[in-house]
Every structure is written in structure tokens, then in C-alpha cells.
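FIELD: query
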Amino acid sequence: MFRIVKAEFLAPEIKRFEILAPKIAAKRKAGQFVIVRISAKGERIPLTIADSSIDRGTITIIVQGIGKTTKEINTLQTDDFFLDVVGPLGLPSHIEKFGTAVSIGGGVGTAIAFPTAKALKDAGNHTISIIGGKTKEHVILEDEMNEICDEVYVTTDDGSYGYHGFVTGQLQELIDSGRKIDFVLAIGPIPMMNAVAEVTRKYGIKTVVSLNPVMVDGTGMCGGCRAVVGGKTVFVCVDGPEFDAHEVDFRLLMKRNNTYRNEEHDALERHICSLDKMYAEALKEEI
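FIELD: result
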């Protein structure tokens, strides 16, 4: 059992958990993830380790409530428990002094980009962060990014805050202004990562994405997280999760991610009433 030291909503449907897991906190590196489970019959959910504290023996994860299990996770409160937290899993981010490094986070992808952006800064890069959200209230970790990056740009789909448009538009503006960009990390929805890859491809800018396929065991045994990169099959959980964006077959990745869409929808619909009640109670307690 892993106790939740602190739980708080950052935005609608997005919640941050600080979890007591000293062994994982001592070993994890930027880019790695854990697989969590809240009950013996529960679904296994892979989540990037957004931060950690060796002194407190804690790791931080950020969860977006989209399906049945993630919505259930987001009803958990401080001093509740996760049944399982397994990790650190996956390969760490490749960090070096590139020069000017841009980290792009779309929605909850900002939480995944944060630890790598921090590591890039520590390696001596000039760090730029572009973080996006549907609206102002969906933008997360702006203050945290400002603490570790030299420049932070915020975009919103509806123009309610920052740049009116997508993260790709802000990236293109930086490139058009004559800024020399040496490295780009993009993390978020598959269409967003694909779009970033197409922007940087024509300029030959090294670009890395963190993939998010269907994943079960996190050890490469189940084969559920297969993806095609550079024409070859990879297992994201052990060969990644980060890959060269210009070599990823995003079309196939999206197709595989939609494999269980109907089942996920049905599972959520069967539990929607009880989940809504749990959500309301969780929010009321935090207020």
C-alpha cells in the first residue's frame, strides 16, 4: 500500500498526487514512469513521474480523469492509498547540452514534460517551455515551469489566456522570429505530437516525443504497447517511452490507441452515476 501524502486538483479533471514511495523516489530519473493500481481487480495505469523528493521519500504523479479508472483515481484524497505503485519503469530521457531546448506540453502533457525540462535546464541548456490548454483554467504548472525555464509561453485554444491557438502556432512564431532552436520535446495528445513533428521536420530540428500507447505490464511481456518507429516494431514500455518524433508512425499509433475505445466508453457509462457522485464529494472536501 502506498499512502497519498497530498492530493489536489490543478484544473478540471486534472489532479496532482504526492505519494510516499521512497525506493522509487531514490532511483527515478526524468522521463520514467510508474504503473499504479487502486484495487486488486483494478486496471493498471501508466503515469509519468512528474517530480520526486528523496528527502520526503515521495513521488508526484498527475492524473487526468478521462476513463473509468482515471476518474476513480481522482476521487482519492490525502491519506488514501494506492494498492500498487510499480517503478521506475522505462528508459530515462536522453539529456545533454543541446543549446536552446524547447519543451512543449499539451494539456496534462505538461506534467510529463516538466521533469525533462528541469533536467535540460540542469544540463546547461537555454530552456523554453510552451504549455497549452483548451482554456485558461486547463493550463497547468505555469508557475512551476517559470521556476525552471528561461522562457515560458502559454497558449489556449479559445484565446482566454496567452497565445490564441495551438502550441504549434507558438512554436512556428519562435522559428519565424529567427530563434535558433536545437532541440524540441513534445508531449501531449497524439495529433499534437504529430503536428509538432511536422513543423520541426522541415527545419531539421531534433525532436523527441513521449508515446502513450495502450500498456498493461510495463515490462515488454504483454506486447500491448507496440509501436512502429523508423520502420521497426518497438515496445514503448522498455524501449521508450521517448522516441525520435520524425520516425514515429503516428497513424498506426493512433489506430492502436483506439482499439478499445468502445469498451472504455461502455465501462465509463456503466459507472458514470456513481463516479459523478464521488467526484462531487471529492471536490467538496477540497473546497
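FIELD: remark
The chain has two domains: 2-90+261-286, 100-257.
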